[in-house]
Give the backbone structure.
Amino acid sequence: MRKHLFSILFLVAAGAIWWASISSTVRNPYADNDNPVIVTSGYVPYTLLKELAGDSVNVLMLLPPGAEPHAFEPTPGALVMLQHADAFVYVSDELEPWAADLAKSVGQKTRVLALAQSFPKTGDPHVWMDPQQAELMAYELSELLADIAPQHRSVTDKNYSKLADELDQLDKDFQTQLANCQSREVVHIGHLAFGNLAQKYNLQLTALAGTSHNGEHSAKKLAALVKQIKQNNIHTIFTEDTLSPRLAQAVAQETGAQILPLYPIEHISKDDFNNNVTYAELMRRNLESLKRGLQCQA
């Protein structure tokens, strides 16, 4: 913790120097309009906020598309951004310890919201993989928007109602469309990001790594996974869309299994970011991959 604190203090000082060196020549990005500025840690709060706020709030994201979310190192520019923000939103201390440290360096008037900090602990901090939990996060964000931009409350409430209905339907579709499958075994060549999804919809999950991308891919663990796939006659393995495909391809070559993508949503591709792909759209991609890979019947 002390190491993290020293790193943050160093970045604050570096950020101040950086801002002083460019402020006379670079236009302040927050001066374009009078809308509040909300900075998010990663894509889940970012996309939910965009759906709720529309154009009434400037929503910025610290984590670049494709970056590893669990051990992200903030830049001096990120610290300056937080000094000027009306709010900083992240998921939880457990998922993003770097964001928890960063929250100590926000501006005096910057609101800080850890969306899932009070959620029950499940061993997997990727809580949004349960659409009902994502709906709770959306509600917390709508309340934040009501405080920061009360003049847009009617629009925010309308958008929240629409989003809540969409997430309720998403949850029902997962329940019904994954109810009758030839297999319920999800073998994931990636980190443990889908534990809450598996628990919610009665699937059996095996992940090669732990809850972050820094988990060890030991030869012993990989050999055990290949043995499991062969013994259980598993026809499909899953991997994350933004990971290098080489490991999954090696497992597929050894076992004859096909590879299908899953989307953890905490980090996404540049194309999906540029196209403003929503949480629900990415979750529906997950549903289609699971239906296909587990051979589910309508």
Remarks:
- The beta strands are 37-40, 58-61, 87-90, 111-114, 185-189, 204-207, 236-240, 258-262.
- The mean pLDDT is 86.
- The domain at 2-153+160-173 is CATH 3.40.50.1980 (Rossmann fold).
- The chain has two domains: 2-153+160-173, 177-293.
